[in-house]
Design brief:
Helix content is 29%, strand content 27%. It has helices at residues 53-61, 82-87, 104-113, 121-127, 143-156, 173-188, and strands at 13-24, 27-38, 41-46, 68-73, 76-77, 89-92, 161-165, 192-196, 206-211. The chain is globular and about 50 Å long.
């Protein structure tokens, strides 16, 4: 099936939100939310605490259902292409998701075993500056180093779509720049990303912004 183009006739549309709504309890977080995300593009999601940013990411990942509307992957509803979508998704939550008793090398080996492998573990750790700590238990690493382990997972698995919740958490200025460079390379290779952050993202390319504030 041919993938639908984006609005300017360029890169193919990968991810679409159509009239999405989300309720928590009796509170409406957002409604009638629409966007489309093409290859080579990044969507930056902004909003105050409680605006529904993490809830939106969970819906986009298929971890939660919207109150209304639908999410589409490559032109079809997520439920129809769920297996294909999950094989092309890499999700990094607000928490590191790193097992403290395991080393960075062991954490990445687990990730590679559950997905399509990409960059070698040693190369991924070198890229994020953690190769000297490859055999240290992650519980002995700093918060910023554990965040780098989580970011290295993005490099060791082959994924078209990155969905990242506050990826700059616990990182210093050099770490922030590293994440921007990882995103830049991912988009240049034909990937796409949805990123929740208040941090300005410095990229050469297409950055769309979505605010969930009323």
């Amino acid at each position: 099936m041919a993938h639908p183009p984006n609005g300017d006739g360029g890169s193919p549309i990968l991810l679409e939100a159509r009239a999405l709504a989300c309720e928590r309890g009796d509170r409406l977080l957002f409604a009638n939310l629409n966007f489309s995300l093409a290859a080579h593009a990044l969507l930056q999601v902004e909003g105050q605490n409680g605006a529904g940013k993490t809830s939106l990411l969970r819906i986009l990942c298929g971890l939660a259902l919207p109150s209304a509307g639908s999410v589409c992957w490559r032109g079809q509803a997520l439920g129809v292409r769920r297996e294909e979508f999950l094989s092309e998704l890499a999700y990094l939550g607000h928490h590191h998701g790193v097992k403290g008793a395991l080393t960075p090398e062991e954490n990445l080996a687990v990730a590679r075993g559950l997905a399509h492998p990409a960059l070698a573990i040693a190369e991924a750790l070198r890229t994020v500056g953690l190769l000297p700590y490859h055999d240290h238990p992650c519980q002995e690493l700093s918060a910023g180093q554990r965040r780098r382990v989580a970011l290295a997972r993005l490099l060791t698995v082959r994924a078209t779509l990155w969905i990242l919740d506050e990826p700059f958490t616990s990182l210093d200025r050099a770490g922030v720049r590293m994440v921007e460079m990882l995103l830049q390379a991912h988009l240049a290779a034909g990937g796409a990303a949805v990123v929740v952050t208040h941090q300005p993202i410095q990229l050469d390319g297409i950055v769309q912004r979505l605010s969930l504030d009323a």
